[in-house]
């Protein structure tokens, strides 16, 4: 395609795939797009191992990494302090989550193993600038071509270091004012994230947001994100001035996806209202699969979710550990966008890319006919 982002990275199609799964990253890049590995749920040791695996299997194709480096957050400490839930988290919030699971019959963790299980899981959630910086140091040892900050503008030092190595930098924006800050910080392009997206997102729909951000930062390239999983949606992004698409949720239905079979089955059953925007998972607005856990925070008398990353530590350390140990279906959740209602069966990454490009071509032909 005659496209600035295709030219920037030497790729064949402007399809950028965010995933926590190394297999998805490799398969998208091999299919002509660009895979981006999310680092927020990995220990430093795992980051190095995952990137090395990608290096060994991607055949020299370009790929990137995605980090969480928010500009506002509650300092939860790092190292040993991060794992002391009774010291770190309010007693009322701990009682709320523990009581919720007790009443539902979700068994508590074995007493002899509880502390280590919670520690192992919470240690994989990296949210603070210090933790993200450690991830970046590891990533820079590998031939990455892109660094994306999912929460806020990247620090000037990071942009300078990346550019000195020939690495492009981008950031996500849910409003034009955020996109302008990213541009001024030196980003090579901006990702405009509509509210339909999975994960951290704002409240403006893609149809309204994309052209606003395109106009706000022109001539800087923009990727459209939020609700893209097929070719017609990619065509809409291009028609609204974007240079391509940033997709995340659609890869969750693939055989390469990292989600468990139980979570995947819940997604295949989900309706259009089952991707809810909630602060109950991370402390920031995050669209995720509706569950008994997310519903509980909307009930009368529920406490206010804690600021990030404390709410994430509460969910990961006190909720997710118990839920996933026994696969308690009604409590299983995972970040996913509104496109989940269109995800009905498992397929492959390559098939998703081929279907998307095929439908994009059909959309172009239809427009050519309509416009004469």
TrEMBL record:
Domain of life of the native organism: Bacteria
Annotated InterPro entries: Aldolase_TIM, NMO
GO molecular function: nitronate monooxygenase activity
Keywords: Flavoprotein, FMN, Monooxygenase, Oxidoreductase
PANTHER family noted in UniProt: 2-NITROPROPANE DIOXYGENASE (PTHR32332), MONOOXYGENASE RV1533-RELATED (PTHR32332:SF38)
Protein name per Swiss-Prot or TrEMBL: Nitronate monooxygenase
């Amino acid at each position: 395609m005659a496209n600035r982002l295709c030219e920037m990275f030497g790729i064949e199609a402007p399809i950028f795939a965010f995933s926590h799964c190394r297999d998805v990253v490799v398969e998208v890049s091999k299919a002509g797009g660009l895979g981006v590995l999310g680092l927020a749920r990995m220990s430093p040791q795992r980051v190095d191992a995952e990137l090395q695996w990608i290096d060994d299997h991607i055949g020299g194709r370009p790929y990137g990494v995605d980090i969480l480096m928010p500009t506002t957050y509650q300092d939860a400490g790092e190292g040993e302090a991060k794992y002391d839930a009774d010291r770190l988290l309010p007693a009322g919030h701990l009682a709320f989550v523990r009581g919720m699971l007790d009443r539902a019959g979700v068994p508590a963790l074995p007493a002899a193993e509880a502390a280590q299980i919670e520690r192992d899981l919470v240690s994989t959630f990296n949210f603070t600038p210090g933790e993200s910086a450690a991830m970046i140091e590891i990533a820079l040892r590998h031939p990455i071509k892109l660094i994306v900050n999912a929460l806020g503008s990247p620090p000037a030092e990071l942009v300078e270091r990346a550019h000195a190595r020939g690495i492009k930098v981008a950031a996500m924006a849910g409003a034009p004012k955020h996109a302008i800050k990213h541009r001024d910080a030196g980003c090579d392009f901006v990702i405009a994230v509509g509210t339909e997206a999975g994960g951290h997102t704002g409240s403006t729909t893609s149809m309204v947001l994309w052209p606003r951000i395109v106009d706000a930062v022109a001539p800087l390239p923009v990727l459209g994100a939020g609700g893209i999983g097929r070719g017609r949606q990619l065509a809409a992004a291009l028609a609204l001035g974007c240079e391509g698409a940033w997709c995340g949720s659609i890869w969750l239905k693939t055989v390469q996806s990292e989600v468990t079979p139980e979570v995947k089955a819940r997604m295949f059953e989900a309706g259009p209202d089952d991707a809810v925007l909630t602060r109950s998972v991370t402390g920031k607005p995050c669209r995720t699969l509706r569950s008994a856990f997310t519903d509980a925070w909307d009930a009368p008398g529920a406490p206010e979710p804690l600021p990030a990353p404390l709410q994430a530590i509460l969910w990961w350390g006190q909720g997710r550990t118990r839920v996933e140990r026994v696969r308690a279906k009604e409590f299983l959740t995972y970040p996913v966008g509104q496109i989940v209602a269109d995800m009905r069966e498992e397929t492959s990454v390559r098939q998703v890319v081929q279907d998307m490009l095929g439908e994009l071509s059909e959309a172009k032909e239809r427009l050519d006919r309509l416009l004469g």
